[in-house]
Design a protein that fits this description.
The protein has 382 residues and is of the alpha/beta class. The protein has 13 helices and 14 strands. The protein has 2 domains: 2-15 and 29-252, Rossmann fold, CATH 3.40.50; 253-310 and 322-371, no CATH class.
Length: 382
């Protein structure tokens, strides 16, 4: 907390004017506003200071405004900072204790909806990635609680609901939802959050922290979109900080269920997992993953391959990626942009099966059949 306070004091300067009253017309007061959610009440608390300083630098020329809400170990509640013209205005949010809670995130976005009326928004969520339905871990959802099994996670379903509600009340557009956490460029996550923004940016593999691209946010063009943001995240980032980034055009996702049917109509062959998919399969946060484009190609599901190409608004692989905290290593340059979850042989956990993708398609049972071991040979076989 001392480090965070020093950073905020250094970047405060002359505070900007207080926010104007709620808008009364459709005129935009700002061009670009970027909203950062930093639930760092865990072992990433050290990253808060460098991230906030980078965000402050991004606003120095006045082209973008940025608001961040951050949680760090040993603090009461969270801290909210609004950056403009290289200065930061800080305010405490003492009742925001659980930074992985839906209500806490919603309150931040509601505050932003009153303070700003921008033409272009992006919402960023930083922190740890978790298993399939989870991200953003708060180790101490109550003040001075010891880390342990009572840690809380934000779900992708909750994230989608909060950002979609913010998008619905804004006259401008949420150009991108950026899940700046490990391993969230999956087809299930993309489907879950598809209504939250025009595009979704995420990585198939782990990311580093605190990242270095932040000052380059000032270089976004006037009419930027998710593809432009992807370019900033990758060209201005240190090579040690990422292996892959993907951009999904959410407007193209309507074609996904029909395209997935071209895969699920094909009988799955468990031999694919030990054969051509083996180099492209890994485990992170207890879940197994493979590359969806590779699976479609191996299965011969050409319509799915075409749809995955059509919904991509960009994919960048870092050939110099650092060693990754995954069980098994996937070559970043061989990945297609979206991962697919591989359930355990005894079936998909209920909270994983509850993801919208598995309710809206036949992919879940098909994947369970893919990973199911073949029955032992009957008597006299061989």
């Amino acid at each position: 907390m001392v480090m965070l306070a020093l950073v905020l004091a250094a970047c405060s300067g002359t505070p900007p004017e207080m926010p104007p009253p709620p808008p009364t017309s459709a005129a935009f007061r700002e061009d670009t506003v970027l909203l950062y959610w930093l639930p760092y009440d865990n072992d990433l608390g050290h990253a808060a200071g460098p991230v906030l300083e980078g965000l402050r630098q991004a606003t120095q020329d006045g082209r973008v405004q940025i608001a961040a809400q951050v949680d760090t170990p040993g603090t009461v509640g969270m801290q909210r900072v609004a950056f403009r013209d290289g200065r930061g205005l800080e305010e405490p949010v003492p009742d925001a204790e659980d930074s992985a809670g839906l209500a806490t995130l919603q309150a931040f976005l509601d505050w932003a909806a009153v303070r700003y009326e921008a033409r272009h928004y992006a919402v960023f969520v930083l922190d740890h990635g978790g298993d399939l339905p989870r991200l953003a871990r708060d180790d101490r959802p109550t003040f001075l609680q010891q880390p342990g099994p009572s840690a809380t996670w934000l779900s992708t379903t909750e994230l989608a609901a909060a950002v979609a509600a913010f998008r619905a009340q804004e006259p401008g557009e949420v150009e991108a939802l950026v899940m700046q956490v490990c391993g969230k460029a999956s087809v299930a996550a993309a489907w879950e959050v598809r209504h939250a923004a025009r595009s979704t940016l995420a990585s198939q593999l782990p990311l580093g922290a605190p990242n270095t691209y932040y000052p380059a946010l000032a270089t976004l063009p006037d009419d930027w979109d998710g593809a432009d943001l992807l370019g900033v995240l990758t060209t201005a980032e240190a090579p040690s900080m990422y292996a892959t980034w993907s951009c999904v055009d959410n407007r193209a996702l309507d074609a996904l269920p029909g395209a997935l049917a071209s895969l699920t109509d094909i009988p799955p062959d468990p031999a694919w997992l030990d054969g051509p998919l083996a180099p492209l399969t890994w485990t992170y946060a207890g879940d197994a993953w493979t590359d969806l484009s590779a699976l479609a190609r191996i299965a011969g599901a050409a319509p799915l391959e075409r749809t995955l190409d059509a919904l991509s608004c960009g994919r960048v692989a870092n050939p110099a990626a650092p060693p990754l905290p995954t069980d098994g290593f996937a070559d970043p340059t061989a990945l297609g942009g979206l991962s697919v979850y591989l359930p355990p042989a005894d079936g998909m956990p209920a909270d994983h099966a509850a993801q919208a993708l598995f309710r809206d398609t036949h992919l879940g049972p098909w994947l369970e059949a893919l990973v199911r071991p073949p029955p032992p040979p009957g008597p006299g076989a061989g």
